[in-house]
Amino acid sequence: xxxxxxxxxxxxxxxxxxxxxxxxxxxxxxxxxxxxxxxxxxxxxxxxxxxxxxxxxxxxxxxxxxxxxxxxxxxxxxxxxxxxxxxxxxxxxxxxxxxxxxxxxxxxxxxxxxxxxxxxxxxxxxxxxxxxxxxxxxxxxxxxxxxxxxxx
Length: 152
Fold this sequence. Notes:
Blueprint: H1 2-26, H2 39-70, H3 80-89, H4 95-109, H5 116-151
Helix pairs in contact: 1-2, 1-5, 2-3, 2-4, 2-5, 4-5
């Protein structure tokens, strides 16, 4: 049943959000030099990057489609871009913001030591943008709960 699957996805998203929040609490932001970070902050930063990526993948690969399906929107054979346009119509995220988050996530996934300062700039931006990603899932879950409540 789509409702059970969606609730499972939201539970997984909650775990990612908690790890993102906890990691941010351990970091002294902005990060200016990765090499001199205390070990705990390196772990926190790596956790934050990993959970940001996992949360974005979960939202894009599973939650958006399941959310629209639960909303009784026909999703069969829809491209991701078409799904994203429908999510945008719901006021949950705009396409440009999602694209920026996705690009940032992809840039961070490919870290090249010779471009360390550029990477640190992207890491600091990812830390700031993590609130936007968390906000997207929070809006989607809130709308889901509103729909579920109306059906009860």
